[in-house]
TrEMBL record:
Record-linked Pfam families: RhoGAP (PF00620)
Residue intervals of the Rho-GAP domain: 1-135
Protein name: RHG05 protein
Gene3D superfamilies reported in the protein's UniProt record: Rho GTPase activation protein (1.10.555.10)
Length: 135
């Protein structure tokens, strides 16, 4: 309901973001399927930006339709938030740092994974920055 004003109800932006992240954390599987994580990592290594973007777009097309729709919605929203960075200080980089663990739900117990966290974050940053291309 777009007529609901969370601000008038005393709900802070941080509370909304926390609830959103908790929702994604409670899903049985992450929004970005584990089965596509390795492919995302490999694609992020492509030097040519245009080729990398096209390959990322092909990966997103592999999402389950519901995951695709939710991913499109959340990334588009995060892009809108990032466009207001002068007011909210939330650049695409900052947003990707906050949201990539929620969207991808990594295995922090896996030592191999720890070496790729910056790559995962940069993939989400690319989705946020280039959302018009992807969707």
């Amino acid at each position: 309901d777009h007529n609901i004003s969370l601000e008038s109800m005393g709900v802070t932006v941080n509370a909304v973001a926390g609830a959103l992240k908790a929702f994604f954390a409670d899903l049985p599987d992450p929004l970005i399927p584990y089965s596509l994580h390795q492919e995302l990592l490999e694609t992020s290594k492509i030097i040519d930006k245009t080729e990398r973007l096209h390959e990322l777009k092909e990966i997103v097309k592999k999402f389950h339709p519901v995951n695709y729709d939710v991913f499109k919605y959340i990334i588009t929203h995060l892009n809108r938030v990032s466009q207001q960075y002068k007011t909210n200080f939330m650049t695409a980089d900052n947003l990707s740092i906050c949201f990539w663990p929620t969207l991808m739900r990594p295995d922090f117990e896996n030592r191999e994974f720890l070496s790729t966290t910056k790559i995962h974050q940069s993939v989400i940053e690319t989705f946020i920055q280039q959302c018009q291309f992807f969707f």
